[in-house]
Amino acid sequence: MSIRQLEDITTELKKEAKHDPGRVAEYQVAYQALEEKIRERDRSRPKCIPTRFEHELDLMEEF
Predict the structure, then answer these.
(1) What is the pLDDT of residue 50?
(2) 58: Cβ contacts below 8 Å, ≥ 6 apart
(3) Can you name the residues that pair with 62 across neighbouring β-strands?
């Protein structure tokens, strides 16, 4: 499941949880899954990107 899908699900569950306290547990599970997915994405993202210049040096740019 993508981060966008999880965001949509958590948004919907948050709205439902305001009216139905029984949905709070479902919201919390979905929110934890979303946080884990974001952490996983950040861990797999490269820390820097090499860029070539005319003077043949590599410059490392941090995000």
Answers:
(1) 53
(2) 50, 51, 52
(3) 48
The share of the chain scoring above pLDDT 90, in percent, equals: 40
Question: If you count them, how many residues does the chain have?
Answer: 63
Tell me the CA distances in angstroms from 31 to 1, 4, 8, 37, 47, one per residue in order: 13, 12, 11, 10, 26
- What does R_g of the chain's alpha carbons equal in angstroms? 19
In contact, 9 and 31? CB cutoff 8 Å: no
pLDDT single digits (tens) 12-28: 999 999 999 888 999 99
CA 29 vs CA 6, 32, 48, 51, 60: distances in Å: 11, 5, 33, 41, 38
pTM score, two decimals?
Answer: 0.65
